[in-house]
Amino acid sequence: MMGSADEALNAYQLPKPLPIWLNPAYARHIVKGNFMTLSARPKTVEEGEWVAHQVVEHYRNLWNFVRVIYEKEEDGKTLCNSTTCPRMSAGANHSYTWLNSRFEPIELPAFEYITLMQRWISGKIDDTKMFPTEASGVSFSHNPQITTTALLNGPDEWVGKRSGFPQEFFGICQTIFLQMFRVYAHLYWAHYTEPFYHLNLEKQLNSCFSHFVLTATALDLLKPQELEPMQPLIDLWAANGTFPPESKAYEYANLKVGQRLLQLAGMA
Ligand SMILES: [Zn+2]
Predict the structure, then answer these.
(1) How far is the CA of 34 from the centre of ligand 1 (A)?
(2) Which terminus in the chain has less CB density within 10 A, N or C?
(3) One CATH from 3.40.1180.10, 1.10.1760.20, 3.40.47.10, 1.20.140.30 for 19-136+151-264
(4) What stretch of H or E contains 88?
(5) Rounded CA gap, 124 and 185, in Å?
(6) Is 85 annotated as a binding residue?
């Protein structure tokens, strides 16, 4: 049994005052209407094609925000640099290490981590063995032979097999989504106010990230425990109606915490 909303909220060990992105007044987004339609797979599209398409789309969205923290200031430094962000962190409680060529975990400044991550993801997306179809230009031609249910029974079946994706395709896509999630978490924890809020980009960031979470959870590209650094925002978005009750993102949220956050802001 979950404790009270306040106990659950305290367990997150969030800084006080709370980060502004947890204030419901700042957690708004642009898209009105039903987000589900954006992440639901058209019935005639094979699952592998759909996952590939989502990887490319969400990577493109995320990169628009990363470009902003890569802009050089007047002093010639980027907004995210080794002084501002000596680690790839998401608040005080989470930081991520990179694996070097000998598969040893190493701590890197966020800027370097994100650059390596970008190189790694681009390498995968551009690898025609991994992404055999032009995922960004998928036309989703209607193919009556593609059924809505995935036939994933037994070791000889995998997501994307029928469209020519290799067996490790889905695992790679999960890793790509996990890396993208870490970047979003860094953007929220380290750069939400400066630059995004000050550039009036916070609604765009919220739109892209909420859509990203809906897609990632719906397609099992992220596991619930991997969402931890952003859990309170997910709770809030379940409570304020951003995530529809039928979505997996909603299922993973602690609704009581979300409602408490709305209360704290005098909005419930
Ligand atoms: Zn940073």
Answers:
(1) 32
(2) N
(3) 1.20.140.30
(4) strand 88-89
(5) 22
(6) yes
Domain ranges (residues) in the chain:
19-136+151-264
How far, in Å, is the centroid of ligand 1 from the Cα of 83? Answer: 9
Ligand 1 mean position, distance from CA 63 (Å): 14
What tokens appear for 208 in the block? 């892209």
Distance 235 CA to ligand 1 centre (A): 24
Structure ipTM over 0.85, yes or no: yes
Query: Each residue of 193-232: pLDDT tens digit?
Result: 999 999 999 999 999 999 999 999 999 999 999 999 999 9
Q: How far is the CA of 123 from the centre of ligand 1 (A)?
A: 23
208 marked as part of a ligand binding site: no
Count the Cβ atoms, other than its own, within 10 Å of residue 188. Answer: 23
